[in-house]
Amino acid sequence: MSETFGQRLRRLRAAAGLSQSQLARLVPISQSSLSRYESGSQAIDDAQVAARLDELVGGDGTLRALAHPSASELVLTDDDRDRIARHLENPSRIDGGTVSALADLLAAQRRLDDTLGPEIILPASMSQMETVRALLPSARGPHREALAEVAAEYVQFAGWLHAETRADERAVVLLGQAEELADEAGSGVLAAQAANFRGYVARQRGNPRGVVRWFLAEHHTPGAHIAQRVGAAAQAAHGHAQLGERDEALRLMDTAGRCSTRPHASSRPAPRIGSRPRSTG
Questions:
Q1: pLDDT single digits (tens) 228-244
Q2: Would you tell me how many other CB atoms lie within 10 Å of the CB of residue 37?
């Protein structure tokens, strides 16, 4: 059985040679609160205190993770878990409830990325991504397209998490797979977003030609939302400026301005695949 927050805190505190009173003073919290955390009689609900305890006893992020329920615990009911397990055994019978549960699970992972950061949630996110992908090849019926879209979003989110942790090569592989899944799902919005993240990775690598290439790919993706096209043109213009190509940069900025004044062809907003605010368009 894996350790609870209290069990791990008590073990790490002892290994660090700290008494309860010493650790409580360093946080600072009351010794009685620390005692209740360790005994499990009180759940810790303060993320800053959990992070401080993790730092003081050398938890390497494990206490922060244990202080928060997993995304599956947050959103999945027992019926959801049973339904997903059944469909893993017989994926051809995928239903709308299962697809909705998987989409809710992904939304919860995004929220955890906001609060915990990518390193802590990456293992669980990858496991969930593989579960969704395992369902897709044999899925049939009216809910397959929706499942393909959730799969595309999951792979794309995994690519974003790898980009956040600077595992750039793995991020690029996942984002390429996400583009293929988005095409399978018939979603220009998701395909454009995958190209956007490829541009973000190129920027992290200091590759302005890659910035231009991938943001232009986003801009020209059939079915991209108008907001995506506007932002992508501006980002590609920035890449041209870095290359010293002033005329191209100005042309794309003019394109972005014209796009922003057009009536929206679709009321559907660009998806929020990653969690934190972006400057990537």
A1: 999 999 999 999 999 99
A2: 25
